[in-house]
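Illustration 12: Claudin.
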Amino acid sequence: MTSAALEILGLGLGILGWVGVILACGLPMWQVSAFIEANIVVAQTIWEGLWMNCVYESTGQMQCKVYDSILALPAEVQAGRALTVLVALLGLVALMVTVVGAQCTNCIRPGKVKSRIVIAGGAIYILCGVLVLIPLCWFANIVIRDFYDPTVPTSKKREMGAALYIGWAATALLLFGGCLICCCSCSQRDETSFPVKYSAPRRPTSNGEYDKKNYV
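Figure caption equivalent — predicted structure in token form:
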């Protein structure tokens, strides 16, 4: 029962991480305006995401524009789009695979096959966490590099937005949930893989008594 509860916990963490990746993918706040030095005008805040740019006015109004051309986008934006969408699809596959092989479901009979299916689902969650970590770290590296680059104009410098932090939190949930699912499934398989030994029945001797060697 303990392994089943931990397995459900790992599945819940994986689902939360999957939802977090979808949220981070849709948010336009991957890069935000940096108000430093002479650039202290806070009337407008620029948000840059994977799918659109937004300008937030101090009056509360916001205008967003979807990118016109995909091929004209920077390499990190194209890679971020591809990987986050791939992770969203793989997260759905991991959810279905894990549910099919979970201990709390009866889709497959308990055994080695069911444990392997659950391990496959946990491995897919771990793969999702690794894949989504690539664009997050790529964007963070570019933002930090341009921020400290003296050749970049102050108006062009950006800071890391909320979408990056949501993505990192989702990555942690995916990795931890996937590892938890795999560990619980491996421990369950080890517990059920002990060989069963049967002892030979005791046979009575010719005089009707049991042989003494049966008691040794």
